[in-house]
């Protein structure tokens, strides 16, 4: 049964690293949006293509109204932190159960 425990622990760590990388991509995109980036720059295009589907989904569900500030990156980062705190830790505890 230790093989299943090791597999679950590895999956949990991969999910954790992937979520951390995606969180940094969102932070970098938010920082770049404060300046006037060149839309034809390959890095800027990658950042927009990687984050826009998730941010657009959040924008649809949370009306910005007259605030004038896009808070969708903050909400996505909070969701990532929740997933890391809940799902990843739960998977690691489940892995310990199988060891």
Q: Would you kindly provide a written description of the structure presented here, covering whatever features stand out?
A:
The chain has one domain (2-98). 79% of the residues lie in helices and 0% in strands. 7% of the residues are buried. The chain has 3 helices and no strands. By secondary structure, the chain is an all-alpha fold. The termini are close together. The longest helix is centred in the N-terminal third of the chain and has 31 residues, at 2-32.
Notable traits:
99 residues; mainly alpha; 79% helix
Blueprint of the fold:
Layout: H1 2-32, H2 42-61, H3 72-98
DSSP helix fraction? over 70%
Proportion of residues in extended strands: under 5%
Q: Whole-number average pLDDT? A: 91
Low-pLDDT stretches are none
Distance, first to last CA: 6 Å
Count of distinct structural domains: 1
The major sheet is characterized as: none
Shape: elongated
Gyration radius (Cα, Å) is 17 Å
Q: Could you tell me the number of beta strands?
A: 0
Structural class: mainly alpha
Number of helix segments?
3
User: Can you write the helix and strand succession as a string?
Assistant: HHH
